[in-house]
Every structure is written in C-alpha cells, then in structure tokens.
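Quick one, tokens below. Sequence please?
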C-alpha cells in the first residue's frame, strides 16, 4: 500500500494520497488550505489516477481544496451526513476560530461545494483505489467526524483519524458541534478497542500508535476513568440512563 502525505500551507494539516500501488488509482484524504499543488505533485510522481476525495470531517482546514481537486479530476467527495452543514457553509463550523481561518484563506476567498458529494455511514465498507477500508463514526470533535480504517492485506493496520486524536492529545471540542464527553466515548469505543500496533495517521504533526496513546495520552486514561471499560455495559455518565 502506498501512503504519502501532502502538507497544506495553513495549520500544518496533512492531506493523504493513498493507493494500492504506483501506476494505479488513488484516493485523496483531507486536502486542506492550498494543499492541491502538493497533492498534484505526489499524483504525478507515482503516476496515480485520483478517484475520490475522502473527508474525515467538515472543518475548512481539511476541506478547503476538495472542490478544486474534485473539479480537476472529475471525482466525488465523501463526508458523513452530520457534517454536511459544515461543507455547505464552512464558517458555520468554526465559532471563535473564524478570524484565524479568514486570515488563512484571504479576504477575496469564496466557497463552492464539490460538484458531487456522497454520504458516509457508520460501518460502511469502501473499496476505492484497491484500498479496502471501513468507515467508523467517531463524533466529538465534530458531529460527523469519522475514522477510515485501512484494511491492509499485509496485516499492517492503519487508521486515518483526522482530528479525533493527535499524538499526546485530542482535537479541540470547543468548535460548534463539538462535545468533550462524546469525544471521550469515541476514543474509548472506536480507538481503544484496536490493537496497540495500529498506526494512527493523524491530520496534524506526527503520527502515533494506539499503544503509545494508551500509555501516554491523558485523554485516553480520562476516557476509561469517566466512562468505564468498553463492553462492560456500563457508562456512568450516559445521559440516556
């Protein structure tokens, strides 16, 4: 499996170009602010043919170049239904962070949604560019945050986590639609259940593994301390109980 990063100009967001091999189809994940040029260079270097843009969530530092790439290659964008409002109106997702994003995109910036948008569902299986993957809904950072679990036939395990997890911390839950307790549940139920060797391909800074975060990430410990162990049938802070 070919996995290459393409760093955006703003906020250090990492887009990913993923393919089963060189000279083949590929998918592009989270093309951020002015990431398209780097994405194109990776596509040309490995002689790839983009077939889809996948979005881990609807924040503008992950979606900014999706319309351009979708138009350039005639391909659809995929996003979870709960984040569709953020894709329609990017600034609605940003709250107090809006001025930082306005500065990053520039005063003359305008937005048009990708021409074709397809909705992702929890548990959905995709096989694009010879890369089988599973979609896991992991809300908390945004209502529609998802993980893309790459089902590599070699036995290696990779998970694209967007802003759900960073090395040593988690993404902010202070933007519209964010919720800290929901984020902790997603960590407990969607990430802590994975083998320690699973590689977490993060959207910012360095990648990590489940084992490293289990040992060192205070939010992983908090998820267990507050919510109990996954699978025990108890959730002491469950508002539905």
């Amino acid at each position: 499996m070919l996995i290459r990063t393409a760093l955006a100009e703003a906020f250090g967001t990492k887009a990913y170009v993923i393919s089963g091999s060189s000279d083949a189809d590929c998918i592009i994940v989270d093309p951020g602010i002015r990431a398209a040029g780097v994405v194109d260079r990776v596509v040309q270097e490995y002689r790839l043919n983009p077939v889809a843009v996948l979005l881990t969530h609807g924040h503008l530092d992950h979606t900014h170049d999706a319309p351009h790439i979708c138009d350039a290659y005639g391909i659809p964008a995929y996003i979870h239904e709960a984040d569709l409002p953020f894709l329609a109106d990017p600034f609605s997702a940003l709250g107090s962070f809006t001025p930082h994003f306005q500065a990053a995109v520039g005063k003359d910036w305008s937005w048009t949604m990708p021409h074709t948008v397809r909705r992702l569902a929890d548990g959905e299986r995709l096989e694009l560019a010879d890369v089988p993957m599973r979609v896991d809904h992991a809300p908390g950072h945004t209502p529609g945050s998802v993980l893309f679990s790459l089902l590599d036939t070699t036995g290696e395990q990779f998970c694209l986590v967007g802003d759900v997890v960073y090395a040593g911390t988690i993404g902010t839950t202070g933007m519209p639609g964010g919720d800290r307790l929901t984020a902790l549940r997603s960590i407990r139920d969607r990430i802590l259940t994975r083998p320690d060797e699973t590689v977490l391909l993060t959207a910012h800074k360095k990648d990590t593994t489940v084992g490293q975060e289990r040992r060192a990430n205070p939010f992983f410990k908090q998820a267990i301390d507050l919510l109990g162990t996954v699978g025990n049938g108890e959730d002491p802070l469950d508002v539905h109980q």
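The mean pLDDT is 91. The CA atoms of residues 56 and 179 lie 17 Å apart.
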